[in-house]
């Protein structure tokens, strides 16, 4: 069945990769990418979108006039727009609230008016910071390791599941995403929309214009490639903090499955990430980047913790894996090598973005 897809944040890392992947898999689908191009480097995706036959719309989810149901007429909305930085919530709360909450409301209104299906990319940061800081872990030579015995429900050595508690402060960024999730459930119930919420952990891969507070694996590889210094921030400056990661191509595989199975999956929320098999500490990331690039760079330890940071987050994706049969296919070596090859091929256009 041919679909008319609108991807908000469609020139960003996630939105553009999903759009390009779906365009390749379904040449008869009509795909449009809406983006305000605020994120540095997002403009570099415009030629790629055009080449793939994806219509680019220079618009902003904060402006409901840019989401005209008559002009757009989508039957599927992939809501990838966001200010994705936790730190931005502390420095630019107005922009985060307008983009991540009002923007989602405007997208939901478009879905209501067009009866479009709605897949929302949420975040692991909906879980409260105090609860994540209360996780029990041990310190090994290269990383922090989650223990099986935990005092909170929904967490084990396998990571954080959907049963993890939601009471408490989680950053303005996390709060806007959780509030959006609640509104999505209401719109689905009130207007009969087919919706899915994906609480994503760290997403990474080629074409991610990484920053310190968002896109750290791409940033780390770029620093090694271009010989620029980085910092181990927080937790004694040892670089032992851990995240699981998911290659963007694995997310594409999942979104494709979800689109094809919306009747079965509608109304559900899933934790989506690489899981225990795909985790790295910053220290381990450094070792892999050294191995892949053959370069060593200066790393400054900064012992003090950063506002809103957590020492360890691992996604337990067993619910989505059991429901769909999906499983991440790309490990750390593959993922970081893909990023390295992308930077190497496009160094002339990405070097300034990572400056």
From TrEMBL:
All copies of domain NAD-dependent epimerase/dehydratase, residue ranges: 5-273
InterPro entries: Epimerase_deHydtase (IPR001509), NAD(P)-bd_dom_sf (IPR036291)
One of the Pfam families matching this protein, by short name: Epimerase
Signal peptide residue numbers: none
Coiled coil location: none
PANTHER family reported for this sequence: DTDP-D-GLUCOSE 4,6-DEHYDRATASE-RELATED
Protein family per UniProt: Belongs to the NAD(P)-dependent epimerase/dehydratase family.
Protein name: NAD-dependent epimerase/dehydratase family protein
Organism: Aerosakkonema funiforme FACHB-1375
Source species taxonomy: Bacteria, Bacillati, Cyanobacteriota, Cyanophyceae, Oscillatoriophycideae
């Amino acid at each position: 069945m041919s679909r008319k897809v609108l991807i908000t944040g469609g020139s960003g890392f996630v939105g553009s990769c999903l759009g390009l992947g779906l365009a390749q898999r379904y040449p008869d689908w009509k795909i449009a990418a809406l983006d305000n191009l605020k994120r540095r480097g997002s403009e570099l995706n415009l030629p790629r979108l055009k080449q793939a036959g994806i219509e680019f719309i220079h618009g902003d989810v904060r402006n409901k006039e840019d989401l005209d149901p008559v002009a757009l007429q989508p039957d599927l909305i992939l809501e990838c727009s966001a200010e994705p930085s936790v730190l931005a919530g502390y420095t630019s709360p107005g922009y985060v609230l307008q983009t991540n909450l009002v923007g989602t409301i405007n997208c939901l209104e478009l879905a209501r008016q067009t009866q479009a299906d709605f897949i929302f990319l949420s975040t692991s940061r909906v879980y409260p910071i105090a609860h994540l800081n209360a996780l029990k872990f041990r310190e090994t030579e290269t990383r922090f390791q989650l223990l099986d015995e935990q005092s909170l429900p929904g967490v084990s050595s396998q990571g954080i599941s959907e049963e993890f508690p939601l009471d408490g402060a989680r950053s303005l960024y996390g709060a806007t995403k959780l509030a959006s999730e609640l509104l999505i459930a209401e719109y689905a119930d009130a207007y009969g929309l087919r919706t899915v919420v994906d609480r994503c952990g760290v997403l990474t891969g080629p074409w991610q214009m990484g920053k310190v507070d968002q896109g750290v694996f791409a940033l780390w590889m770029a620093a090694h490639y271009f010989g620029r210094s980085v910092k181990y921030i927080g937790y004694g400056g040892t670089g032992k903090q851990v995240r699981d990661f998911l290659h963007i191509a694995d997310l594409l595989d999942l979104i494709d499955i979800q689109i094809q199975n919306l009747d079965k999956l509608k109304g559900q929320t899933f934790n989506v990430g690489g899981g225990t098999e795909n985790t790295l500490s910053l220290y381990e990331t450094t070792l892999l980047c050294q191995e892949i690039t053959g370069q060593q760079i200066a790393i400054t330890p900064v012992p003090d913790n950063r506002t809103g940071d957590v020492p360890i987050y691992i996604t337990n994706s067993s619910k989505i894996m059991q429901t769909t049969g999906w499983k991440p296919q790309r490990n750390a070596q593959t993922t970081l090598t893909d990023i390295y090859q992308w930077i190497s091929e496009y160094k002339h256009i990405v070097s300034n973005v990572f400056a």
